[in-house]
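[job 0412] stage=complex_fold ligand=flavin-adenine dinucleotide status=START
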Amino acid sequence: MVNVIVVVGAGVSGLTSALLLSRSKANTVTVVAKHMPGDYDIEYASPWAGANVMPMATEENSRWERRTWPELKRLTEEVPEAGIHFQKGRALRRLKDEGAPGNSTDPLFAANPWYRSMLPDYRELDRDEVAAGYDSGCEFTSVCINTAIYLAWLVGQCAKNGVVFKRAVLSDIGDAKTLSHTGQPAGIIVNATALGSAKLGGVRDEALAPIRAQVVVVRNECEPMVATSGTDDGAAELTYIMQRAAGGGTILGGTYDVGNWESTPDPNVALRIMKRATQVAPGLTGGRGIDGLSVVRHAVGLRPYRQGGVRLEEESLDGETSVVHNYGHAGWGYQGSYGCAERVVELDSSKTREPTASMAAMIT
Ligand code: FAD
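[job 0412] stage=complex_fold status=DONE, emitting structure tokens
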């Protein structure tokens, strides 16, 4: 007896869930989505992401990031075709940002952060290593993902395990029940529709909101990655820099604008992003300032924020079919992807006749 599973959504959350589920021979998995890797759309967050690991969770909520790091590290070391490379990362702190409103990434900037035991080579920076305008900082080894390569790689890994992909726009989560490629009704639907769940029938989650992220992608190279605790340009603006693996360009960020759905890049914001990036990392342009940047594109993505945190739980659809929700990852969807998908497998296993292998066994 196979477990018929339909995953709705082909961003990093849906694809990672499908990958882990498809590792069990007891499962037959179909992925159904409006957007697939290769598409660039304001309704599809995953392609726009940097994407790196800069822990954002508080220690008590760090399970998803803790469980994801070992797998991203393993992929970086052993699977070059996944499009991930190691980069040093620096978190630069200003005293005036401590407790500042809108500083939603503050656990990254804690003086003695929980992640110092997770990310290799963690150390406090010496005073003369801290960029001008900042009071302190730390450095660690992290990774940066080329999302164009990585999302496609996930599709390939799923396909190798027998996952079938279909395009469809659902108006109700229950519609997924009839969309398995097997023709049989799905016993489990995984809802990984991110901001789509704000309007999706059967879900309509009013706690969802976009956090607008405007970025500039440049050809210039930069190591280490940098994130700063704040800027002087308002609570909705951030400074971060990361170089994607395998020629994916360097991402200059950005903004963190809660509730803003605007999809068009704002040229004034872009100018400020480029100025701040070249100030904090003059080496980006060899000291030539913003004139030395070679722009690939200006872009906007929407982080799928959910007030109260990610929704990772199972509910009954109609007594026969269960829905396992995995959405609302805001700005940490990649760095929490394996931990959350592991939980999806656990929730699925509790609903299926033949329990799948333990989560730990699946990602180690
Ligand atoms: P999405 O990628 O939005 O996918 C949703 C899927 O559901 C899509 O396939 C969509 O078509 C489908 N869907 C929705 N509604 C329907 C429907 N009705 N019918 C059918 N299909 C539907 N995270 C990190 O971990 N590290 C970073 O460095 C990082 N940087 C970021 C930088 C930017 C600029 C942005 C925008 C985000 C960043 N993030 C980062 C956050 C990360 O990108 C998101 O958390 C993650 O991509 C969310 O993935 P998802 O699969 O849940 O959603």
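Helices lie at 12-22, 63-78, 147-160, 267-280, 337-349, 359-363.
[job 0412] exit 0
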